[in-house]
Amino acid sequence: MPFWSGLSAESRETFWRSLQALSATRIVISLVLLAYLMFDRRDVPTAGLYLYTETCIAYLVMAGAFALACLYVRTRFLAQVVIQIAVDIAVISVLYMAGEEGRGSLVILYLFPLAGAAILAPRVLALFSAALVTLFLLLASLYQVFMGIGGMPITQAGLYGGAFFAIVLVVSHLAGKLIRQEELATRHGADLQIQLAINQIVIADVADGILVVDRAGRIFAGNPAAQRMLGLANGDSGFALSEVAALEPVAFAFSEWQQQVGPASPSGAARAAFVTVKPYRDSGGGTAGTAAWSGRRDLAAHLKLRFARVDTVDEASERCVIFLQDVTAIENQAQELKLASMGRLTASIAHEVRNPLSAIGHATALLAEDLHEPGQARLLKIVGDNVTRVNRMVEDILQLSRKVQPNGAPLLLGPFLNELKTEFDETQGVADDIVWLGNTGAVPVRFDALHLREVVINLLTNALRYASGGVGSIRVYVVTDAAGGMELHVQDDGPGITPEVRAHLFEPFYTTSSKGTGLGLYLARELCLNNAAMLDYEYRFDASGFGVRAASGRFVISFAQPLGARGATANRKATT
């Protein structure tokens, strides 16, 4: 049976449900016919009353049997349809012949089996049923004319037949169209299910994190990699990134991307943003987002973020995708390659570069003693400045080989920072109130004092270049994170570093200043790594300092676990 074998399982189930609905309608029609017989017998002659009654009762019994058959006998669909349609036509024809005055009203009942055949059976069978009904009406009219019995005229019978054929054709066409659409939807649904299954496997196994958020940064979904990078528990959603203190750097980078791309671009991409997710401690009351986040609070991760906007029909349903990549391992590998290259470079710098630089500098100094014309002095100054710049670059490179053996003695930050601030103010000639020194912590850290001095001086020099110069425009303070680690923050009230510059901030020889060498921050980070610490630039929503809940950036030195914390941990373990 090509008609039935070519259908999908979903379409076959739809046909069985339609047949059940047809059976239920048949029961209702048989009950209505019996009720009509009970309340109004004028259209039924006395001679045909018994036949009419017996036919209606038999029709009700067969309707019940057909309903049970299509419920419990789910085989031979077309055979059941043909039998039911044939019984319907036969019963209506018997009732038509049993009645006299009500024959015209009974003709309308033929629409029930003919419409059912047009929907559930092939078009040939539906047209054959319409032909049988039309032939019966024409023969009945001829018989009535021949016998002289008043009844339906032949012309009216022909019109009924034509109408039945037209109805069967229209209903059959619409039913076939619906079947084809359902088959197409079924195939597309199956393809979609397969694609969704593939996407779930890819998203679940991909190493990069994928986070789905709305325009306000409210989390809707995330794959296991994103949950691992952000410390989210399985199922954490419904809160905004900015509502959780540890995720505020991600929220800031997302907001910056939205401002760059703008609402006009449907899926615009921006340069990658680098953020650091740091541990945090609840402030007490907490927020709605903090309460919804049941993940880890002690997580620290350095992430590379990329963003994309999903095309949607309206702004209310707009979704964005944040791609997260943990770049810690990549940065470590890059650092190893850079150090290997630097090692080969520094091996020949002393003889190949420094000696010619010394000769050029000495010759420039001798010429300056003999040449006093303004133009000549200006040219000599240009030569001397560039010699000094190249020499400083060489010194910075050579310092990479001098930091192998750091001093691991404990260092108290309070006295160290106070002494360093005094020296910096005198050296740079700045007022005493420009650099504000806040909390310096009471627990010692493990960091070589000479190395830390060089790192902090570098950060303060950069801050002085971009700060406003007002009172407290440069802030230096120590905070303790949720895991007990200590951080030294250096922050200024300048415009901050753009995401484009942030992506290359710690690369060697990268600088935005015409007088810089591009090695200061790179060397500072290397010194921190050599002391088991980390130097990074973080975007935060700061509730103190230069404005309330203002987006700002700061350099953060994350020290190794302090000595006091180690001792306390050991004591807790011993007590336990």
Indicate the topology.
Layout: H1 2-5, H2 9-39, H3 46-72, H4 77-98, H5 103-106, H6 111-120, H7 123-147, H8 154-205, E1 209-213, E2 219-222, H9 224-230, H10 248-261, E3 273-277, H11 288-292, E4 301-310, E5 319-326, H12 328-370, H13 374-399, E6 410-411, H14 413-428, E7 435-437, E8 445-446, H15 449-466, E9 474-480, E10 486-492, H16 499-502, H17 520-530, E11 534-542, E12 550-558, H18 563-575
Parallel strand pairs: 7-9
Antiparallel strand pairs: 1-2, 1-5, 3-4, 4-5, 6-8, 9-10, 10-12, 11-12
**SSE sequence, one letter per element:** HHHHHHHHEEHHEHEEHHEHEEHEEHHEEH
Strand order of the largest sheet: 2-1-5-4-3
Count, helices: 18
Principal-axes geometry comes out as: rod-shaped
* Global structural class: alpha+beta
Overall mean pLDDT: 76
Largest sheet: 5 strands, antiparallel
Query: Radius of gyration in whole Å, from Cα?
Result: 44 Å
As a percent range, the share of helical residues equals: 55-70%
The overall strand count is 12
Q: State the low-pLDDT regions, or none.
A: 264-268, 282-292, 543-551, 563-576
Q: Approximately what portion of the residues adopt beta-strand conformation?
A: 5-15%
The end-to-end span amounts to 78 Å
